[in-house]
Structure formats: C-alpha cells, structure tokens
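Retro notes
What went well: the complex prediction finally ran end to end.
Inputs used:
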Amino acid sequence: MTNLFGEYQEQFEDYKHYEFLAIGYSPSSLPLSRRWKKNGIIADFVADYIITYFPENSTKEKMQNRIKDSVNYIANELLENAMKFNEQISSYPIKFKLHLFEDTGVKVVVTATNSICQKTKDTFQAFIQELLASDPEDFYLVQLERSAEAENAPGIGLITIINDYNAKIGWKFETLPKNQSLIIVTTMVKLEYNLQGLLK
Amino acid sequence: MKEIKGEQYKVNYKQESTTINFEGSLRRMGMTDYQPIENFMNEILDQNLGEITLDLCELVFLNSAGFRMLSKFVIAVRKQAKTQIVVKGNQAITWQNTSLKNLQKLMPSLILKWD
C-alpha cells in the first residue's frame, strides 16, 4: 500500500547536476532527550553544505544566509517530527536526505522518513487533509490560537514551512511487506531557487 | 538580573528597561520543555508593568515549538489587555524576517521594531 499527498516526487536521477546527502540513524539507541541534539547538528551541517552547490559568486552573502537559514529550519523541523512521532517499539531507522539538482532553477529537496503506528497515521492524514484544504495563512493563525488554549495543535512547523518559506510539501505513506501494521512515512519539502540564489 | 541558560541559549530579564532578551539557538523539545521559559515570561507579565519588550535580535534560531511559546505569550498579553508589547527583531536573521510578522497578526497593537 502506498498513499501520496501534496506534492511528492520520487525520481531525481535524470536531472542535471544531481547530488544528494543521506543520513540514517537508529531511533532507539539513546534516550529521546539525548538523541534530540542530533537534529540541530544535522540541520546545521546540511545548511552549511548546501551553499557549496551554488556556483561561486552567484549568491551574495545576504542570499547565502537566507538559503542556509531556510534549509536549517526545514531540516530541523522534519528531523524533530521524525523523532517525535516515530513508533517507539520499531527499530526501522530514521532517514534524512537532501537532494540538489537543476531543472528550471536549482531545486533543494529535503526528506525525512520514519515509522509510525496505524493510530498516528490516521491522525496525521486527517491533519494533512485539513492543511491541504485550508488557506495556509488562516490555518496557521488558527493553530497558534488553538495552541495557546492548550488544545492539540499539531503541525505548526509544517505550516510555517509552507507559509513563511514558500516551500512545496508532500508525503508518502507505505507499508513494508514483512510488517503491515507499521507505516513508513516520508515528508518531502521542496524549495526552488534561480541560479542567482533567489527564491523562485 | 534574572536568567535562564542552556547549552546554546540564554534568556534574561532587565528590570530597568522591562526587556526580556533572547540569545543563541533555541531547539528545545516540545512545549513541555519550553515550560521553564514560559513560566519565566509569565511571571514578568503578572507584574503589570505597562510595557514589556522582547528583544530577539540575537536569537539566531528558533524551532516551531519555540515560536509556539512566543505566540502563546503574545496571546496571553492580548488577553490581559494591560500591557503594551514591543518585539525587537533583526531582519538579517531569516526566521525573524519571515515569521515575526505573524505575532503582529495575533495582536495588531504589538509594536515590531527592526534593529
């Protein structure tokens, strides 16, 4: 079973100048509070790495900072979500990928994959459907108000990515042949820049 | 001067200017983990000071749980209806440039000042 939501793309290999970074780690090797630190370390690293992809002198310092900060925020949010919602009893690794390629401009795709249980899948898919059917700005403010009332208001990071960073977002849910009760979810965020490093 | 410190961040309060200063990177885990900072801010709000400034100019990174904490505080100020809130930001820091305007949407009388 595979379900796609939003803007999800599977193949990148045929694009010009394609390269990627992939990181995987055990979801249960250390207590959550100690593993949490990895998110910031990985996000800082990929944010620094990404600037090497843009042709030299094409990005002014201000634009470089904007690209770095955007990738840092997005990578950190996806990693935090993957860690927070990961199915605790599962040993399926948390995977993080950064894809870079040229199409009509430079595309930056950040993905995080983790395992979840059926109940988390149902809640998450209901949230995704609400998000995709809403105006992101209105939905964002509604979620912040809900959050202040101590209501469950998930996904503020994801809505911020769409609303404030002009990114496209998509999800893939799949089951593994060996274990149908475990769902593997990948969240994908896509940013597009022109060759001068400006957001398209 | 009261202060809360972590490995990569510092939050302190300067009484003479009624300013809460944030510095560094805040990537704490979820709302429960932000509770000590939230309590710290609420204690200052409870003093009915007339005006409170949140100085974020040196806060280079804030995750979404941290932004929820800030927005929760702004909503608390709005509900209290006795305190003017001023937010000082730095446009060179991307998250501030893209997201601080959202605090103003929660409370239109919030004064947003860029450094």
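What we learned: Chain B has five helices and six strands.
What to try next: split runs per interface for comparison.
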